[in-house]
Amino acid sequence: MTAPTPPTPPFRDPQLPFAKRIDDLLSRLTLEEKTGFLHQFAPAVERLGVAAFRTGQEALHGVAWMGPATVFPQAVGLGATWNPELVRRVGEAVSREVRAMRGRDERVGLNVWAPVVNLLRHPLWGRNEEGYSEDPGLTSAIATAFTRGLRGDHPTYWRTAPVLKHWLAHNNETDRSTTSSSVRPRVLHEYDLRAFRETVEAGAVAGVMPAYNLVNGRPNHVSPYLREHLRSWTGEDLLVCSDAGAPSNLVDSEHYFDTHEEATAASLRAGVDSFTDHGTDSSRIVARVRGALERGLLTEADIDTAVRRQLSVRFRLGEFDGHIDDGEFDTPGHRALAREAAEQAIVLLKNDGVLPLAPDARVAVVGLLADECKLDWYSGTLIHRSTPLDGLYERFGAERVEFAEGVDRVLLKTGEGTFLHVPPADDADSGVRGAEGALDPALLAGRTDLPPLTTDATGTELALVDWGEGVLTLRAPDGRYLSVAEDGYVRASADQPGGWIVQETFRLEPHGNGHLLRHIGTGRHVRVAADGVKVADADPEVFDLVVVERGEEAVTRAAARADVVVVVAGNDPHLNGRETEDRTTLRLPEHQERLLRAARAANRSTVLTLVSSYPYAVDPAALPAVLWTAHGGQAAGTALARVLAGDVSPAGRLPQTWYADDTDLPDLLDYDVIGGRQTYLYFEGTPLFPFGHGLSYASFSYRDLTARVEGGTVRVSFTVTNTGDRTADEVAQLYTRAVDPSVPHPRRELAAHRRITLAPGERAELSFELPPSVFEFWDVAQGRWRLDPGRYDLLAGASSEDVRLRTTVTLDGEPGAPRPVAERGLEAADFDEQSGTQIVDRTKVSGDAVTPLAGQTGELVFRACDFGPGVAQVTAEVAGEGVVELALDGGPALVTLSPDAPTAGPYDYTSLSAAFAAEGVHDVHLRLRGPLRLAHVGFSG
Q1: Backbone dihedral region of 152: left (phi > 0), alpha (psi from -120 to 50 degrees) or beta?
Q2: Which helix (H) or strand (E) holds 209?
């Protein structure tokens, strides 16, 4: 007799709603199994037929870290396209390649950690390349498009599950796991939260990743904002994945908790659902969770909540229904899309008529990036590769293009009179050479079987590049970079600088009549030993730097023979500005400045092409043309050549302000965009190039701006006409400005934009609907959004500063009212203005307080405070020690409050009271001194 077939468990029944199926599966899991799910690498549950699962697959501009894949332009380049529909198609292509690669390699995950929606507030941020824009509206538009592409268009199942990075107010790599971003409520709501909120509300986001930093004194991994804001924006279960190592940072570097059990419990209760820590080893996280359970810091219900969110994502991905999307990989369509994206990302900053290039022009292409197709930390491995030189050869013919890289060629002479020598790789490169005998660079990095450097009487001429701030790379004649492997020997064993800790960079340090050569990755100096050149702690070699040829000499020769010179300058994304390392200046490295000056001196028709992850401060006055593009992926060179030749009219637009000088920048850790007058929204200086700027080979006219208010919505329309002689794209931009605001508003703010293609003479009427929320601001006095009644300018044009049309509408809003301080008092963080203070955590769980910066007297200003018919007493909630002074309307201190003794700890508050008489409406000034936290000030009759 045949045994009856066991019934299908409800979690396997595709006819049931996901919520019921998740409930069923959750009920079948043991506490031990559920605890195992909390680590990034969740194990299989074989008894239930549940497969192993891991969170996290990097896919910022293509599938990363998993081998060959289509490489699209960097995220900041996608932002420069100002084209959400294009970016949606890029996201779709990336998701299809994720699925295709998953079919071949189970290590490829479907929970993708992309996009990055941190705002590009500060151009010296090392990870500038990863964000889309300094504007929250543009960032959310591009991010929403990318997540929609990643999610796919199936009504039930998601192709991939996108996780947004990095929550929240994260714009510095310097001390990133210990610094706190002081974010006042207006900046929090109007700026930092906005990009996340609008993207989550669009419905294609599976979760977020908290950032390493703290916000207002509290680590992001225990942020109450996850509950108070993020999860209120959607009815979907959102998966919160920790950043790598961040759970341990809560104790090890931040010292926010005393034990890892406390930290893990606090993170889980705050909303972290998956812990990315200790690589594939889940044992320590599991042990911490068990310890927290034993100590009563967690309940099984807390674990169930996190596991439920994980399972929600897995069900949406179709895991339990056998839903398989085979995807597509490296298709002709993906290759064409990579080129289209690279073309649309190119921004023409200046053009005095030298571009487009004449068809018969003799072109010199020079510079350190002229024959490079650089990747970054979040790139995949190139299948196809196009450098500017490749593109110009292809477009103009090799006979019309001359190349000069511009590297300095040097010999390093030892104290013994010998020279550093790079042995040939032929004797040790079995399997390294490809079919045509060329070195396969993918097999070079980290090799220890290649021979180390030696010395001999003639030496090897090395290409030396100074990438700025003394960071050097040295390259052998066959293209191999000098590198240091784990055994400490110096070898020519890398195709490019790269890795989490770059092993291909050095510094020359003056020493006596020569130089020491320090290897930056290990911090050790280079030593010449009997068994080869190595790095060591003692007996460093003193080298004489013998310059065989300066790079500018080769550039001068090539430039003098050409009709036009294209100087390709910029950065290597692994050096001087990347994850873990902020830049220190906007200036172009001196080596590249030398090459640019040499080219310009030899040929006035010099075009500067900046290929970089971030803005530079360059003087364009003496240059007839300047372009910028982010590192453009596999088709970068072809795209650039097509734009230079005029096959494509450039229409990229700057997604962030390009400042003229370092002195225009705020402190890297000043997150108060309002008080610090930061980004195009508030900056009052003259930028080098403004937000939204970008030129074309065509010309466009703007006419017929109309605006009408209907039920609170502002309906705007205007026409754009191509008045040029070629088909081209234009990016029409619409900005708003409050004419007479009650509190500081942006100078102007992007409300809408559209990228359109117009043939010569073609005209398009553009229409936009602006809901009331576009004009609202966060009213700190009332703790909510409010629309100021009054007049608002509508500005239409080609950039934030190139305004072609304007009109004004009058909106009915809600008039502001004085703060009812006699009833509510004042929350310290709800100030209107401040100086010398920072916001800190009121408790480890929730709330804000304010403290003066070390050694400074801080001041908080609260405008228009209504004391009603009168108050007789003031009470301040404080912790620590110090002094609070209260004054009215900027006058002398009327009350001084100070605890008799320091409180027991920074979270132990005491109430200080004193007599204080006031009536009517006044500005309140609170001055703070000493290590004191002020949480609240109350008034009573």
Answers
A1: left
A2: strand 207-210
Bridge partners (DSSP) listed for residue 874: 914, 939
Structure tokens at 159: 């192709």
Q: Is the peptide bond before 115 cis (omega within 30 degrees of 0)?
A: yes
CA separation, residue 892 to residues 723, 792, 798, 850, 885 (Å): 63, 38, 50, 21, 9
Give the whole-angstrom CA distance, residue 878 versus residue 662: 38
Rounded-to-integer distance, Cα 40 and Cα 34, Å? 13
State which amino acid sits at residue 128: N
Q: By three-state DSSP, how is residue 225 classified? A: helix
Task: Tell me how crowded residue 773 is: count the other CB atoms within 10 A of its CB.
Answer: 10
Q: Is 821-940 assigned to CATH 3.40.640.10?
A: no
Kindly report the pTM of this predicted structure.
0.96
Cross-strand pairs, 114: 163
Asked if residue 356 has a cis previous peptide bond (ω within 30° of 0), the answer is yes
Let me know if 46 is exposed, middle or buried by CB neighbors in 10 A (0-12, 13-18, 19+): exposed
Question: How is residue 516 written in tokens?
Answer: 């020491």
Pair 603, 31: CB distance under 8 Å: no
Do 794 and 808 meet the contact criterion of CB atoms below 8 Å apart?
Answer: yes
Same fold, 30-321 and 821-940: no
3-state secondary structure of 590: helix
- Surface-to-core class of residue 433, CB atoms within 10 Å of its CB (0-12 exposed, 13-18 middle, 19+ buried): middle
CATH of range 30-321; options 3.40.50.1820, 3.90.960.10, 3.30.70.3270, 3.20.20.300: 3.20.20.300
Phi, psi values for residue 231, rounded to 5°: -75, -10
Over residues 741-785, the pLDDT tens digits come to 999 999 999 999 999 999 999 999 999 999 999 999 999 999 999
Contact status, residue 352 vs residue 624, Cβ threshold 8 Å: yes
Find residue 807's DSSP bridge partners. Answer: 794
Q: How confident is the model at residue 444 (pLDDT cuts 50, 70, 90)?
A: low
Nearest of 735, 722, 707, 737 to residue 802 by alpha carbon: 735
**How far is CA 297 from its chain centroid?**
35
Report how far residue 138's alpha carbon sits from residue 128's, in angstroms, rounded to the nearest whole number: 15
pLDDT digits (tens, 9 = 90+) for 358-375: 999 999 999 999 999 999
Residues 607/624, Cβ–Cβ less than 8 Å:
yes
Amino acid at 560: A
CATH number listed for the domain at residues 415-540: 2.80.10.50
Give the class (CATH, top level) of 698-811: mainly beta
Q: Enter the DSSP assignment of 430.
A: T
Question: What secondary structure, in 3-state letters, does 266-300 show?
Answer: HHHHHCCCEECCCCCCCHHHHHHHHHHHHCCCCCH
- Residue 431: which pLDDT band, with cuts at 50, 70 and 90? very low
DSSP state of 76: H
Q: What percent of the chain has pLDDT over 90?
A: 96
- How far apart CA 264 and CA 941 sit, in angstroms, is 46
Domain ranges in the chain?
30-321, 342-406+552-653, 415-540, 698-811, 821-940
- Residue 852, strand partner residues: 837
Q: Are 71 and 129 in contact (CB under 8 A)?
A: no
Question: Where do we find the tokens 């697959």?
Answer: 57
Q: Indicate the fold that domain 342-406+552-653 takes in CATH.
A: Rossmann fold (3.40.50)
CA distances to 367, 566, 602, 607, 621 from 352, rounded to whole Å, are 22, 15, 18, 10, 11
